[in-house]
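Sample entry (140 residues):
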Amino acid sequence: MADLLTLEVATPTGLALRTECDAVEAPSVEGQFGILPGHLPLLAALKCGLLRYRTEGKEHVVAIGPGFIEAEPDRVELLTDLFARPEDIDVDEAKKDLAKAEEELRKFPEVYEGPEYNELQRNVDWAQTRLIAAEIAERG
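Predicted structure, serialized as C-alpha cells:
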C-alpha cells in the first residue's frame, strides 16, 4: 500500500495543482467522499465545492468547479473547468458574482431544470464556494 497520494488537478489552462498528500476529500454529485492511500479505483462526477487535502498533518483547501475525479491506490486526478486557491480569490468580486448569479436565478422563468437553469445554479455554487474557501483560509 502506498504511503502518499499524488494529487493532480487539471484545468483547460493546464495543471493547476500537483502535490503529494496523505488524504483527499472531494465534493461529488452524490456527496463528500474521502480518499486515502491504497483506495480502490474510483471514477466520480464532481460538483462545485471544496477540495481538501492533507499534507504532513496540515489541511489545505481549494475551490473547484464541476468535473470528474479518478482515484487509484497511489494517485488522484481531477479534471475541472474552475479552480481557485484561497489566496487568489478576490472576495469583493466573488460577492458581486454571487449577487448577480442569485438575481439571474430568481428571474429564471422555467421549471427548475434544463441546461440554462443548471448553468445559473453552477454560477451561484461557484461564487459561494470561492467565498467559503476564502473564509476558511482567513480563519487559518
